[in-house]
Design a protein that fits this description.
single chain, 579 residues, mainly beta, 7-stranded antiparallel beta sheet, 4 helices, 42% strand
């Protein structure tokens, strides 16, 4: 569309500024955009010219510039700091068609920092770092239109590899350089700059801009860091929050790179000069090219037990309070070494932990290491090892072979102070179970598979001991495979039938918590359950006996309400009576 003038007193147009730069006695003009609180985004060639001596001697920023009423001698802000790609050279072309490198128009970008928060007065545009083409707008102060703010829009293309934009249907003129190519992203994002107008082809009129895609880290970091220029309280002090007596603590004081070589004085309050290695409660430090000053303060170990102290460091407009940890008691050795237990069971596995070690020390926060050391009571040191704070026995102990051990332990604190002590360790004699009992030695035929046929219990001199049960190989284990054990319940795997098998031989073992065992052989009997024949109460006695004869030769039951006749297998009557 055709370019036209817009009112730079209204949003978002008032976020674009007119820029005048002086080299010697000559003035040059360009455009820029307010970004952040106190920054102007522009093209580097607007503010830097190697042939004219480098950075401009003077840079004036004019928001809401009105050429009809402005004398150029007022209504502007002076720059404080400028940075950009001074290696930019228009003769390098548009780019090099290589990812990761920047040449030509790809580097035509600069950031101007002010000491005034003009963003809160005129507003600012956001930055968009992922624009890859689409409809966009352009603003600038071209000389062709008497340096009035001119607007145009159209389709903007992004090179697929290089970091530049181009556009054919947006009018550009000298003076537009540094102005924004921007989009309205809507919502909280609002108006966002996607590129900085760099210039146009003299033959085709095609416009070019440096895209922001490659500059996200640099721009976001610099815009945030430069806020210090209008609010010095935004300086930072970085350090640990505490320091031990006899140690030192390092500080980094960050302002802004424009203060390179500026010297600051810091002071310490809350302590005396004798607490500081330098015997001074103040010092100086210098800002480096990154806008930071680093310095270290040593704290004296005064060998006085005073508890935690603190001091406050003041530098610039910032303060930070540091705690001093009292280390005067570090010279005191541990006073005791403790074992969590002095006895252990026989038959435990080799390399078992038999006790945990701990230390009594006036410094409760100190750390300790443990060792088996030579000296009085070290007779059996070789039978043990230490892993961290765990005391382990190398071999499985046997009470009958050795009922006690003598060892000597030492604890060492972080300062090398030690305490040693001899210990006698006792082996617990574990009594084996003496017998196994079953709640019953017989069970009915025809019970369900996996029915419990008996409960198992153990007789043990250690009445509080616990036991586990198992079916084991050995004499009398013939029918082990027909049973299973669940806890203390002995279960038969299949439904038993007296006629098929009237007894079972199994071998049981009980094991106590110390691994001691007792084994016994058990014979289990199957109870024969007689058949019953029931007849109907209206049947005659002869009919009943006819059915009895059938029952002897077959297997069925005759239902006779109120009366029953029980038969043995050979047909003899066992009982006749009411149910």
């Amino acid at each position: 569309m055709a370019t036209y003038e817009v009112d730079d007193d209204n949003s978002p147009f008032n976020r674009v500024v007119f820029i005048r730069n002086r080299w010697g006695d000559k003035w040059y003009t360009g455009s820029g955009t307010i970004v952040g609180n106190n920054n102007i985004l522009t093209a580097v060639h607007v503010v830097y010219n190697e042939e004219l001596g480098g950075w401009s001697d003077e840079c004036r920023i004019y928001p809401s510039y009105d050429p009809d009423s402005s004398s150029n001698s007022s209504g502007y802000y002076n720059y404080h700091f400028m940075e950009g790609y001074t290696s930019y050279n228009i003769d390098d072309g548009l780019g090099d068609n290589k990812s990761g490198s920047l040449v030509g128009r790809e580097k035509d970008i600069a950031l101007i920092s002010l000491k005034t928060d003009i963003g809160s007065i005129y507003g600012s545009m956001g930055l968009k770092f992922d624009f890859n083409g689409g409809n966009a707008s352009k603003l600038g102060y071209p000389g062709k239109y008497n340096t009035n703010l001119m607007y145009d829009d159209g389709y903007v293309f992004k090179h697929s590899i290089d970091n530049y934009l181009w556009y054919d249907n947006i009018e550009t003129n000298p003076g537009d350089s540094g102005g924004p190519i921007y989009v309205n992203s809507g919502g909280s994002a609002g108006y966002q700059v996607v590129g900085v107008h760099s210039g146009a082809s003299s033959s085709s009129g095609r416009g070019f801009a440096c895209a922001l895609n490659a500059y996200e880290s640099w721009l976001t970091e610099e815009i945030e860091a430069s806020n210090y220029l209008y609010d010095n309280s935004l300086a930072t002090i970085t350090s640990a929050n505490s320091v031990d007596e006899g140690s030192s603590i390092s500080f980094t004081f960050k302002t802004y790179k424009s203060e390179e070589d500026k010297q600051y004085t810091y002071t310490l309050n809350g302590i005396s000069s004798s607490d500081v290695s330098s015997n001074e409660l103040s010092g100086t430090t210098t800002i480096n090219e990154d806008g930071e000053a680093s310095f270290t303060i040593g704290i004296v170990a005064d060998q006085k037990t005073e508890g935690t102290e603190s001091f406050t460091l003041s530098i610039g407009e910032k303060t930070k309070t540091i705690s001093i940890n009292d280390t005067s008691f570090f010279s005191v050795a541990p006073s005791n070494v403790i074992l969590s237990s002095s006895n252990f069971n026989e038959n435990i596995a080799a390399s078992s932990t038999i006790a945990s070690l701990s230390t009594i020390d006036v410094d409760s926060s100190d750390t300790h290491t443990y060792a088996l050391v030579s000296g009085i009571g070290d007779t059996d040191n070789s039978s043990f090892t230490i892993n961290g704070s765990s005391l382990k026995i190398k071999f499985s102990p046997d009470y009958e072979t050795k009922s006690s051990y003598n060892i000597r332990l030492q604890t060492t604190d972080s300062n090398g102070k030690t305490f040693a002590k001899a210990f006698i360790l006792s082996v617990n004699d574990l009594n084996a179970p003496t017998s196994i009992s079953l709640s019953g030695s017989s069970f009915n035929e025809n019970i369900d598979a996996l029915s419990t046929v008996a409960s198992i219990s153990t007789t043990d001199i250690d009445s509080s001991d616990t036991h586990t049960y198992s079916l084991v190989s050995g004499i009398g284990d013939t029918d082990n495979s027909s049973f299973t054990i669940n806890g203390s319940s002995l279960k038969i795997k299949f439904s038993p039938d007296y006629e098929t098998k009237s007894s079972y031989n199994i071998r049981l073992q009980t094991t106590d918590s110390g691994g001691e065992t007792h084994t016994t052989t058990v014979i289990l009997s199957v109870d024969d359950i007689p058949n019953e024949i029931f007849g109907d109460q209206n049947q005659s006695i002869s009919d009943i006996f006819t059915q009895i004869g059938s029952a002897i030769n077959g297997e069925f039951y005759l239902d006779m309400s109120g009366r029953s006749i029980s038969l043995s297998k050979n047909g003899s009557i066992i009982a006749i009576g009411a149910d």
